[in-house]
């Protein structure tokens, strides 16, 4: 699924997308919904329903703390991006309150391997760690 | 003598002659030439480094005395390859001329700022009694420290040996020493959860089994480089190059540390 800025994307993920994972678990449903909300650029719902008020995102590029910063972060992050396509979810692990994945994603800058890890409390993210490694850079 | 210590978050095991000074180990063996030698007799402070967070004159210590400790040199205080607020303030306030005394000054002041949130001018001057500058003088150095405190907002920002860094180093040391009991008992909460792509490990007993298995396969484990270290509140994120009998891997780890113990850890290889 390739999303242009401002495009309206149905909440149900594209049936052909690789993020549709064969085995359905609560964490996988949460993850799919997370990606769908990101694709829709519905940060209001994303932050409110997926992140605790005092949730933190930790990465080598940015540190984000609490709802107000999360809104700004997602707006900035997706504002920079013409599109984001999850090409494949390469690794997945989950427990009752944690999940982590490695995925290959495509943006206008190239192909990137992303790794994300989440700790949830009462069904919402309390800590989110994220990192990425560029695989192929697109030259324009 | 065989000694193991951490320098700028990288672990090193070296065979040292007992007579060799720490400053020579850092400069000649590890090529950390930001550590300067002025007098070699403990008077000028050009060789100051942090040992377990405390400023020491590395020409006044033997390399073997560093065994088991965590050393920070001037090469380890920049943040993501850019100068930290104290270094920037030194540059902006012209607190550097020839620059020979500067690494030692920065390391001494880093220790001071870890102890005192708002040191007075008199305290700064007294603290620098062991750091001699022969060309700039001390006026601009004091100005730089005050500017750094204002710019950074918080003196904690200037401190390289934060509690979480110390915790991480101690975790690493226990891991590299193969001391699984110390690793788990001293660093993980009773219900800690480690999430890896091989499985989720929960509780101290299971963690001990996991680390024993890991270490039995990854013999001769060495952290060749800590490429990234980020801390934020109770969280740590690291990217390291790990070498063992199994080969070289690029690993990433994320920790949530609460009340001095890991409650959640995520581990993967790139
Ligand atoms: S070289 Fe160590 S105090 Fe002068
Ligand atoms: S700047 Fe030259 S000795 Fe201090």
List the helices and strands and how they pair.
The complex is a heterodimer of chains A (140) and B (270).
Chain A lengths: L25 H15 L2 H8 E8 L4 E3 H14 L4 E11 L3 E10 L2 E12 L2 E14 L3
Parallel strand pairs in A: 1-6
Antiparallel strand pairs in A: 1-2, 3-4, 4-5, 5-6
Helix pairs in contact in A: 1-2, 2-3
Chain B lengths: L1 E6 L2 E6 L6 H8 L18 E4 L2 E4 L12 E3 L12 H8 L9 H14 L5 H7 L11 H14 L10 H14 L3 H8 E9 L2 E4 L1 H14 L4 E11 L2 E10 L2 E12 L2 E9 L1
Helix pairs in contact in B: 2-5, 6-7, 7-8
The complex binds FE2/S2 (inorganic) cluster (2 copies).
Summarize the structure.
With 140 residues, chain A is of the alpha+beta class. Chain A is built from three helices and six strands; from the N terminus they run ααββαββββ.
Bound molecules: FE2/S2 (inorganic) cluster
The CATH topology assignment of chain A is: Nuclear Transport Factor 2, Chain: A
**Main beta sheet of chain B, described?**
6 strands, mixed
Mean pLDDT of chain A: 78
* Terminal residue distance of chain A: 22 Å
Shape of chain A: globular
Q: How many structural units, i.e. domains of chain A? A: 1
Give the low-pLDDT segments of chain B: none
The strand line-up of the biggest sheet of chain B is 7-6-11-10-9-8
Oligomeric form: heterodimer
Q: What percent of the residues of chain A sit in helical stretches (DSSP H or I)?
A: 25-40%
Mean pLDDT of chain B: 88
Q: Give me the count of strands of chain A.
A: 6
Largest sheet of chain A: 6 strands, mixed
What sequence of helices (H) and strands (E) makes up the elements of chain B? EEHEEEHHHHHHEEHEEEE
CATH class of chain A: Alpha Beta
- The N- and C-terminal alpha carbons of chain B lie at a distance of 35 Å
Low-pLDDT segments of chain A: 1-22
Note the total helix count of chain B: 8
Number of strands of chain B: 11
């Amino acid at each position: 699924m390739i999303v242009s800025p401002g495009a309206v994307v149905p909440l149900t993920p594209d049936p052909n997308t690789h993020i549709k994972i064969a085995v359905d678990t609560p964490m996988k449903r949460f993850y799919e919904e997370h990606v769908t909300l990101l694709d829709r650029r519905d940060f209001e719902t994303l932050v409110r329903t997926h992140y605790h008020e005092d949730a933190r995102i930790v990465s080598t590029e940015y540190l984000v703390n609490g709802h107000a910063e999360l809104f700004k972060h997602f707006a900035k992050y997706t504002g920079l991006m013409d599109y984001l396509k999850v090409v494949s979810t390469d690794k997945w692990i989950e427990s009752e309150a944690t999940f982590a994945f490695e995925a290959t994603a495509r943006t206008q800058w190239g192909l990137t391997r992303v790794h994300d890890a989440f700790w949830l409390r009462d069904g919402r993210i309390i800590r989110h760690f994220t990192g990425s490694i560029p695989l192929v850079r697109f030259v324009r | 003598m065989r000694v193991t210590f951490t320098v700028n978050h990288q672990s090193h095991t070296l065979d040292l002659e007992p007579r060799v000074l720490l400053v020579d180990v850092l400069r000649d063996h590890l090529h950390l030439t930001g550590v300067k030698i002025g007098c070699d007799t403990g008077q000028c402070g050009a060789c100051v480094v942090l040992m377990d967070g405390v400023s020491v004159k590395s020409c006044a210590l033997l390399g073997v005395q560093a065994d088991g400790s965590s050393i920070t040199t001037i090469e380890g205080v920049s943040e993501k390859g850019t100068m930290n607020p104290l270094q920037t303030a030194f540059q902006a306030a012209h607190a550097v001329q020839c620059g020979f005394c500067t690494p030692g000054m920065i390391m001494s002041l880093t220790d001071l700022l870890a102890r005192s949130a708002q040191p007075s001018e008199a305290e700064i001057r007294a603290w620098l009694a062991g750091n001699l500058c022969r060309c700039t003088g001390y006026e601009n150095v004091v100005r730089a420290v005050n500017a750094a405190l204002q710019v950074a907002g918080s003196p904690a920002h200037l401190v390289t040996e934060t509690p979480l860094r110390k915790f991480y180093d101690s975790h690493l040391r226990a891991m590299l020493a193969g001391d699984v009991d110390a690793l788990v008992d001293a660093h993980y909460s009773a219900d800690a959860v480690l999430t890896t792509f091989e499985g989720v490990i929960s509780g101290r007993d299971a963690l001990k089994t996991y680390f024993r298995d890991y270490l039995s396969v990854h013999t001769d484990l060495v952290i060749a480089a800590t490429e990234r270290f980020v801390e934020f509140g109770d969280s740590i994120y690291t990217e390291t190059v790990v070498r063992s009998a199994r080969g070289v891997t690029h690993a990433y780890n994320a920790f949530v540390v609460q009340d001095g113990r890991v409650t959640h850890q995520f581990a993967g290889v790139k």
